[in-house]
Amino acid sequence: MAEKIIGIDLGTTNSEVAVVENGQVTVIDITPGHPILPSFVGLADDGSILVGEPAKNQYVLYPERTVKSIKRRMGSADRVELGDQSYTPQEISAIILRRLKAIAEAHLGEPVHKAVITVPAYFSDAQRQATREAGEIAGLEVARIINEPTAAALSYEANHQGHKKVLVYDLGGGTFDVSVVGIEDNVVEVLASHGNNHLGGDDFDAKIVDHLVAHLQAQGADPTASRRAMARINRAAETAKIALSDQPYVRIEEEYLLERDGTPVNLVLELARHDYEEMIAGYIDETLEAVHIALKGAELTVSDLDEVLLVGGATRTPIITERLENDLDLEVRAEVNPDLCVATGAAIQAGMLAGESVSAVLVDITPYTFGTSAVHELNGMPYPFYYVPLIHKNTPIPVTKSEVFYTMHDNQKAVNVHVYQGEDQDALNNIELGQFTVENLSKVPSGNPIILQFALDLNGIMQVSAREKNTGLEKSIRIDNVLARFAEGELQTARERVDALFADVEAGDAARRVGPAGATDHQLTAQARALVEKAERLLDQASDDDREDLINLIEQIKDALAGENFTALREPMAELSDLLFYLES
Ligand code: AMP
Fold first, then answer.
1. Which residue out of 242, 309, 319 has the highest number of ligand 1 atoms within 8 Å of its CB and is therefore the one to mutate?
2. Last residue of some domain: 433, 452, 479?
3. Cα(541)–Cα(373) distance, integer angstroms
4. Are residues 313 and 444 both part of a single domain?
5. Residues having CB within 6 Å of any atom of ligand 1
6. Residue whose CA is closest, atom 22 of ligand 1?
7. Which end of the chain is more exposed for a tag (fewer CB within 10 A), N or C?
8. Cβ atoms of residues 339 and 12 within 8 Å
9. How far is 555 from 450, CA to CA, in rounded Å?
10. Which atom of ligand 1 is nearest to the CA of 171?
11. Distance 242 CA to ligand 1 centre (A)
């Protein structure tokens, strides 16, 4: 059997090693269940070498004997101090590579001599040469150095036939790169690249750290002089940031962070995703500008691109996908774990060089989108069944996502939660999987936050829970088999629904089904009811004249609804909607 070649992502913050086994890529665990090696090297108290997590853990306490981000210095003549010795960047990188080599050998049960190592597309010849030397120092023959975006594209497109152009958007801990990559029958080529090698998830952490420090300072406690306190604040900030990728709020709690006048100071603060997103908006803007610069470099425009591939842990921040989808109007793919796809691609390249056949990377993803309904504008009017997806199709599973919703009325006693599968903006055109009601909500003004959580596991079991944020009052349901194809009954219903639409159109009765702004009967009915409900709530506070108009319009709408006269709804709905707008502003 040919000798194994391993694939290595030698990253600024984290490194990974992967290999092809039986035609499939395995990213090898560093510790059980954990395939990521922090790119940190340090000296322990007793002078022994620490690599990865233990070195990272001591960084804030002993920066003088810990090295991080050595990748930034590759190709320079710098030397770094570690204890009483100094080392070249190649030597430090070699320590990381040696650890990865040993991990691969333990996994494979055989010695490893060759590797494919990835580097950023912008690396100069000197930086590439330094990486090659690091490999050699570690006892690895570097079979090939490949560009990180090339590797990422390979992880998605191994065995791709035909050609396409993709944008690889890579936001890691400390660096950002965006590359335009052309793929032609398995030949992957970087056409242009742009980035900022001092922008990444660490900067997002820093924004949260600033916020936390300001919060403490406002209470008269200043943590900035204490290294230990700042280390804890940094960790808390990163943990909070990661939590906010899946939930709308996070509670940050660090007890006994400091002492002030002999009394302990605790840090207790809640951070909302929305506020966090505002903190980092400037950074996201910067990355989008870089996208356009890279496109210009490749002499292409957005319309030449087929899709965006996400790479790097920080791309799990949901606002990034949202902005890329909205600003570029492209499909954004993240099925291959963004932390592991560069190593995966390196292993695919390594497998090809070793003459192994490599099949496409298999990941467990949900083929369906799941969401709920909420009141939102549809076709210019408030509509109570507006679809709000929580888990998008192609998301790797298991996955847990939560979002916040707000009650509509003062003293609202209950909320009804619907769970749907589908893509349509109108939830009623999707498949309803279940519903439940949370009762006995607190007597508070409208805007009471309710946190809805969807947790989907590999067996297709979905747990949906809704929790009143302020009290913790919670209700949940479990829905089985959500990944199975439509059950026969549902398929039948869907078929009938589609048939019914066509039947009406074929009977020349399209106008009856489709209302003023393209809305269908049920949308129109629901919108009309929502308008009436809203108008009734505003009756008390309206002036006499307005109240008369409101009552009039409400009656016209109710009459039309009772008689199922959908065409007669148009005028009074438009008038009522204008009047409400005026009354509310
Ligand atoms: P990488 O260099 O690609 O390993 O990316 C590391 C960066 O991704 C660090 O800043 C992490 O804090 C960040 N990161 C990891 N997971 C998440 C997440 N779920 N949401 C946001 N950022 C994350």
1. 242
2. 479
3. 29
4. no
5. 11, 13-14, 172-173, 200-202, 238, 241-242, 245, 312-314, 316-317, 339
6. 314
7. C
8. no
9. 33
10. 3
11. 7
475 with 343, same domain: the answer is no
- Residue-level pLDDT at 514: 39
- DSSP secondary structure of 202-218: HHHHHHHHHHHHHHHHH
Residue-level pLDDT at 158? 78
Kindly give the pairing relationship between strand 5-10 and strand 114-119: parallel
- The set of catalytic residues is 9, 71, 148, 170
Same domain, 313 and 369: no
Bridge-based pairing state of the strands 40-43 and 332-333: unpaired
Alpha helices in 116-192 (DSSP H): 125-137, 148-157
Q: By residue range, what is the domain housing residue 579?
A: 491-584
Q: Grade residue 502 by pLDDT with cuts at 50, 70 and 90.
A: low
Q: Whose CA is nearest to atom 3 of ligand 1?
A: 312
385's CB contacts (< 8 A; 6+ apart) are 373, 418, 426, 427, 428, 523, 526
CA atoms within 13 A on the CB side of 478: 5
Query: Whole-number mean pLDDT of the chain?
Result: 90
Alpha-carbon span 477 to 419, nearest angstrom: 10
Count the domains in the chain. Answer: 3
Q: What is the pLDDT of residues 325-350, one digit of tens each?
A: 999 999 999 999 999 999 999 999 99
- Where do the DSSP E strands lie in 399-557? 399-406, 415-421, 431-438, 449-456, 462-468, 474-479
User: Measured in angstroms, how far is the CA atom of residue 206 from the centroid of ligand 1?
Assistant: 13
Residue with the smallest CA separation from ligand 1 atom 2 is 172
pLDDT class of 489 with cuts at 50, 70, 90: low
C-alpha 337 – ligand 1 centre gap (Å): 11
List the end-to-end C-alpha distance of the chain, in Å, as a whole number: 76
**How remote is the CA of residue 170 from the centroid of ligand 1, in Å?**
11
CATH number reported for the structural domain that contains residue 399 in this entry: 2.60.34.10
